[in-house]
Write a structure and sequence with these properties.
With 223 residues, this protein is α/β, with parallel strands linked by helices. 32% of the residues lie in helices and 28% in strands. It has seven helices and ten strands. The strands form two sheets. The chain has a six-stranded mixed beta sheet with strand order 6-7-8-3-9-10, with helices on both faces. Helix 6 packs parallel to helix 7. It binds adenosine-5'-diphosphate (2 copies). One adenosine-5'-diphosphate binds next to strand 2 and helix 1. InterPro entries: AAA+_ATPase, ABC_transporter-like_ATP-bd, ABC_transporter-like_CS, ABC_transpr_LolD-like, MacB-like_ATP-bd, P-loop_NTPase.
Length: 223
């Protein structure tokens, strides 16, 4: 079954005057792993923004988890976002909070007990190899470690879809490998659908995957 489906999707900025993606059609199923590549400025980040509802389609439909983002109301969009794990290139951590507290932010928002939060913080930080850094603050960590915190946070609620924009962009090999491993595991073991914008598909990647290219306003699948 489709988790994401786009029909005649057009995305634009400047009140619709500046079209970035035009008439795109694609569908993505549960457990699919999709790499998105394309020239700089082609619209990769724009597509991710549309998928988490930061920009609204100009034309066509974009359905994520049964919700059409072309017509969704604010409250429904908020609910949808609780099922998305979003990983940003610039981490977007809260620097005044400990690493552990950053990781369980989605669980706090969902109203889980402190006990559950503590247990999950420990489990998640173990997965990203940061167990010993739980009580540190983000700025005491390297860039790679901060991004692993971001990945742990994205996985905290076992999201239906992970959306990642250049997650390993400027990271060291160790952190990059930890992150690719976690995404592979989530996809394989939990059937999480994963979309990753990257400039380079990792050679260590061991799962079957799909490859979309964004170019000249189109979204094309490479076979
Ligand atoms: P990519 O991620 O492939 O590098 P982007 O999706 O970031 O590309 O950008 C696609 C195009 O949209 C670029 O020409 C960029 O300058 C433009 N763009 C991005 N954000 C905005 C915005 N908020 N307003 C107007 N144009 C934008
Ligand atoms: P351990 O805590 O000893 O790593 P688990 O039973 O918790 O063992 O996990 C088994 C496997 O499942 C590990 O490879 C782990 O990376 C993976 N895993 C568990 N939970 C998640 C998650 N939320 N996201 C991604 N991978 C996970």
């Amino acid at each position: 079954s489709n988790v994401i489906s786009a029909k005649n999707l057009t995305l634009a900025y400047d009140n619709g005057r500046k079209e970035i993606i035009k008439n795109a059609n694609f569908s993505i199923g549960k457990g699919d792993f999709v790499f998105i590549t394309g020239p700089s400025g082609s619209g990769k980040s724009t597509l991710l923004k549309a998928l988490y509802g930061q920009i609204r389609p100009k034309e066509g439909s974009l359905v994520v988890g049964g919700v059409d983002l072309a017509s969704v109301k604010a409250r429904k969009l908020q609910e949808l976002r609780t099922h998305l794990g979003i990983i940003f290139q610039d981490y977007k951590l809260i620097n005044e909070w400990t690493v552990a507290k950053n990781v369980v932010l989605p669980l706090m928002i969902a109203g889980y007990s402190i006990d559950v939060q503590n247990t999950q913080a420990h489990r998640l930080l173990k997965h990203v190899k940061l167990a010993e850094h739980a009580e540190k603050f983000p700025l005491e960590l390297s860039g790679g470690e901060q991004q692993r915190v971001g990945v742990a946070r994205a996985l905290a609620k076992n999201p239906v879809v992970i959306l990642a924009d250049e997650p390993t962009g400027n990271l060291d090999d160790y952190s990059s490998n930890v992150i690719w491993d976690l995404m592979e595991n989530a996809c394989q073991q939990l059937e999480t659908t994963v979309l990753v914008v990257t400039h380079k598909i990792p050679t260590i990647f061991s799962l079957p995957y799909r490859h979309f290219i964004i170019e000249s306003k189109g979204v094309y699948e490479v076979h």
